[in-house]
Specification:
Layout lengths: L20 E4 L2 E4 H14 L3 H9 L6 H22 L3 H15 L9 H12 L13 H13 L8 H18 L2 H16 L11 H4 L8
Antiparallel strand pairs: 1-2
Helix pairs in contact: 1-2, 2-3, 4-8, 5-6
């Protein structure tokens, strides 16, 4: 699996470019050097090997300072994400993911939702992208299919990518309410109270109702 690329940004303005320096054993890092290194990491990935190459390609003997700066920035970014994402819903989601991993859910899952997306791609006629300002609904459904069955993704066109981003943002906004937190608490309590998640006896639950919320 390809390592996720992590983008790290400085919090300084352009006007501070010439004045911004960080001293480490007499080695000076300007904002210009930081940006050059970050640009290379964004382009080639953030593996330790790439970081060492990006740092070594800068002028002057400041490789260690650059690596220390990137590591420090990455740690601070992770702390910020943890703080911003700390919520009841996220905690419940993590518990559900742990449950599914411990139950080895993939052995029983038939990926019904992904099959539905595949059926749409293969059988449902879609509008021409020219009629939708360049949005290709076939590739959008294919993207969702791959996401639902865990397959590698192909790059989306810019209009399709923007459309999917907006739709996901709308879903997040709809779910990010007080009522959704109440529902998340109920689901979390259900997870806590339920003693038996037997996907062998009820294999259909694996894909369609993995938390056994449907009592009908």
């Amino acid at each position: 699996m390809e390592e996720t690329k992590r983008i790290i940004k400085t919090d300084l303005t352009d006007s501070e470019e010439k004045e911004d320096t960080v001293s480490n054993d007499s080695e000076m890092l300007t904002k210009h050097i930081k940006r050059r290194v970050l640009t290379q990491l964004e382009k080639f990935g953030t593996t330790p090997h790439t970081l060492k190459i990006a740092a070594a390609h800068r002028r002057g003997d400041n490789t260690n300072s650059i690596i220390d700066y990137i590591i420090s920035s990455a740690n601070k970014a992770e702390e910020c994400v943890d703080q911003e994402c700390n919520s009841v819903s996220l905690n419940n989601i993590n518990q559900w993911l742990d449950l599914m991993k411990n139950m080895d859910l993939t052995q029983f899952c038939e990926y019904e939702a992904g099959v539905v997306m595949n059926a749409i791609v293969r059988n449902e006629p879609q509008s021409n992208p020219d009629e939708l300002n360049g949005i290709n609904m076939t590739e959008v459904y294919k993207f969702l299919e791959n996401a639902l069955i865990g397959q590698p993704q192909k790059a989306l066109s810019e209009p399709s990518q923007s459309f999917l981003f907006r739709e996901i943002a709308l879903l997040i906004a709809e779910a990010n309410t007080d009522q959704s937190d109440v529902e998340a608490r109920k689901m979390g309590q259900n997870l806590y109270n339920c003693q038996d998640y037997n996907y062998v006896v009820q294999p259909q639950k694996a894909s369609l109702d993995p938390l056994f919320l449907d009592k009908s």
